[in-house]
Design a protein that fits this description.
With 403 residues, the chain is α/β, with parallel strands linked by helices. The chain has two domains: 37-267, Spore Coat Polysaccharide Biosynthesis Protein SpsA, Chain A; 270-395. It has 14 helices and nine strands. The chain has helices at 50-64, 82-89, 107-117, 136-145, 167-183, 185-188, 203-206, 218-225, 250-267, 270-298, 302-325, 327-330, 336-367, 372-395; strands at residues 37-43, 69-75, 96-100, 122-125, 150-154, 161-162, 199-202, 231-235, 237-238. The strands form two sheets. Strands 3-2-1-4-7-5-8 form a seven-stranded mixed β-sheet. 36% of the residues are buried. Bound molecules: guanosine-5'-triphosphate (GTP) and magnesium ion.
């Protein structure tokens, strides 16, 4: 055994996609003792805070999970040499690791890069500036041990709160939350404090997903892209910063909005909708051609021709949608019976769409006096959305298959 009074070497900064491996990459025979918790401490100019936070966290964790945790400081090459201060502490704190990033910057990516290098089953994050009380960590850990996939320290449950925030900061924080609820209710609404930067998540819940956070709010990214079923929350009081400076600026609010919209788009089946629209367009030509043939070549009556050609269009659309737009889903629901069932549902939904179409045009044109072409355009748009959405939910329904 060598005595370890030399500082640990710095962790290699992972590159490429922001993706957490399912199994920790650098788990060697020597370190194969299962690491339970990897806690990332992102830092930017926190040299004054780093000794205290490392000391406090070590003291707490040594009591409950000695030697099966790691603290990972991820510093963005701070000019106050935070990374060096941390590295010099490693002889005294064997669970401490340090990453110095020189090429990338930003809080969220720092956290993910740290997790990529982590060995733990549970991945966590805490601010370096002591605004996140270290003691809350044990409560978060307890939540995880009870089976939570995500444990969030929240300012808005139980004994949670903020210490001396100005009215404007409180207002901005709540405003951001409300905005999140409007844009992404299914994500932001799952936690009482979506802005929290103090939480733990089970590795499996996010492993293999490509994360691409914009700005500061990594929790939203984890909730939005991860596979999180059970969420636990623990109240805490956000402390005042005593040393160092805040890095929060207006830019963070803009980035937050951008982040919400990116996630919103990622959640909407945009590609599918475009394919659905394209197929719908092809249906118009089939409908027209068959109508022409029935009228001219066969000499059928107007109504019968219209009905038959519309049905030909519907069948055309169904086949393409089944093969292409929703191909991935229909391939997992094989068999003629199932296919016929999908066709019948599709038919029924399109028929309802047609009725809506007529109703909307009448409402807009006759009752509200809207120009008839604009009315027709609104009707087509609404009915296409209706057709797409209801077919997605009913005809090509996926019973919760994880991508
Ligand atoms: N690696 C890295 N860490 C960052 C970056 N920006 C902020 N941090 C760290 O992330 C944590 C939170 O940042 P703060 O500036 O304290 O943000 P805040 O706590 O929301 O705001 P304050 O109440 O003003 O402190 C701190 O530990 C920072 O040092 C960054 O660009 N890179
Ligand atoms: Mg802070």
């Amino acid at each position: 055994m060598t005595t370890t009074n030399k500082p640990h070497s710095l962790l290699t900064v992972p590159t490429g996609l922001l993706q957490i491996p399912t199994v920790a990459k650098n788990t060697t025979e020597l370190s194969s003792q299962d690491i339970k918790l990897s806690l990332v401490i992102p830092t930017y100019k926190e040299s004054e805070n780093i000794p205290t936070i490392v000391q406090k966290l070590t003291q707490l964790l040594d009591d409950v999970i000695p030697s099966v945790y790691e603290l990972i400081v991820v510093d963005d090459n701070s000019s106050d040499l935070t990374w060096e201060v941390a590295q010099n502490m490693t002889p005294e704190y064997p669970q401490l690791q340090v990453m110095r990033r020189e090429k990338e910057r930003g809080l969220s990516t720092a956290v993910i890069r740290g997790w990529q290098a982590a060995r733990g089953k549970i991945l966590g994050v805490i601010d370096a500036d002591l605004q996140h009380p270290p003691e809350t960590l044990l409560k978060l850990l307890a939540e995880m041990e009870q089976g939570a996939d995500l444990a969030v320290a929240s300012r808005h449950v139980g004994e949670g709160g903020v210490s001396e925030w100005s009215l404007i900061r409180r207002f901005l924080s709540r405003g951001a939350q409300v905005l999140g609820l409007i844009i992404l209710p299914g994500v932001v609404g799952r936690v009482s404090d979506p802005m929290s930067g103090y939480f733990m998540v089970r590795r499996e819940a996010i492993a293999g997903k490509t994360l691409s956070p914009v700005g500061y709010k990594i929790l939203i990214e984890v909730l939005g892209r991860g596979n999180v079923r059970w969420v636990g929350e623990v109240g805490y009081v956000f402390q005042e910063r005593l040393e160092g400076e805040s890095k929060v600026t207006w830019k963070q609010y803009i980035e937050y909005l951008q982040h919400l919209l990116t996630l919103r788009l990622a959640k909407w089946p945009v590609g599918r909708f475009i394919r659905f629209g394209t197929v719908g367009f092809s249906g118009v030509f089939v409908d027209m051609t068959v109508f022409y043939l029935l009228r001219e070549a066969v000499g059928l009556g107007l109504t019968s021709s219209a009905i038959l050609s519309a049905e030909a269009g519907i069948i055309n659309n169904f086949l393409w949608n089944d093969l292409w737009t929703f191909g991935d889903i229909s391939r997992s629901q094989r068999g003629w019976r199932k296919r016929v069932k999908r066709l019948l549902k599709f038919n029924l939904i399109c028929l309802t769409g047609l009725i809506f179409n007529v109703l909307i045009i009448n409402l807009l044109f006759n009752l509200l006096g809207v120009n008839e072409y604009i009315a027709k355009l609104i009707a087509i748009t609404t009915v296409t959305l209706w057709n797409f959405w209801v077919n997605l939910k009913l005809s090509w329904r996926v019973t919760q298959v994880d991508k």
